[in-house]
Specification:
Strand content: 35-45%
Low-confidence stretches: none
Mean pLDDT: 90
Helix content: 25-40%
Strand order of the largest sheet: 1-7-6-5-4-3-2
Structural class: alpha+beta
Oligomer: single chain
Largest sheet: 7 strands, antiparallel
Radius of gyration: 15 Å
Number of strands: 7
């Protein structure tokens, strides 16, 4: 099994603390910025940053879905880490100030991919597909924090 990584980033015209607060709000902001690939979203505990436990199903393609139960940690001020209790998938959101009223939000997801020919296709196509999904979430986040 090889590790698979999907990355994307976006610059948002909003202060880093505002962007971080929005990303860490699993009760109201997160459900409003998720794309149509997410369903069955619910907060199981917490709801604000570290210690939150959140569930969703990620429908990556017509035939590929992941039932995720995410544990949220905030190891540093600029990072929110979502670790899936049902798999090896870990998503890290990093918010970096780019001046007083501008931020870069980077999202990176890693997981242990399949082996063999299936793993080859997963490593080849899954990162681009997941990056597109995250691009959609970042676009909606931009609208929430700048609108």
């Amino acid at each position: 099994m090889a590790q698979v990584t999907a990355r994307t980033a976006r610059t948002i015209d909003a202060p880093a603390d505002k962007v971080r607060a929005a990303l860490a709000d699993y009760e109201t902001v997160r459900p409003s910025i998720l794309t149509e690939q997410y369903r069955d979203y619910r907060v199981e505990s917490g709801g604000q940053g570290a210690g939150s436990r959140v569930h969703w199903v990620l429908q990556a393609t017509k035939s590929r879905q992941r039932d995720q139960l995410v544990e949220v940690s905030v190891p540093t001020e600029d990072r929110i880490v979502e670790s899936d209790a049902n798999s090896s998938m870990v998503t890290t959101w990093t918010v970096t100030p780019k001046g007083a009223d501008r931020s870069e939000v980077a999202v990176e997801t890693t997981w242990n991919g399949a082996g063999g020919i299936g793993g080859f296709f997963e490593r080849t196509f899954a990162p681009r597909g997941l990056a597109r999904i995250h691009d959609g979430v970042l676009a909606k986040l931009d609208g929430v924090v700048t609108g």
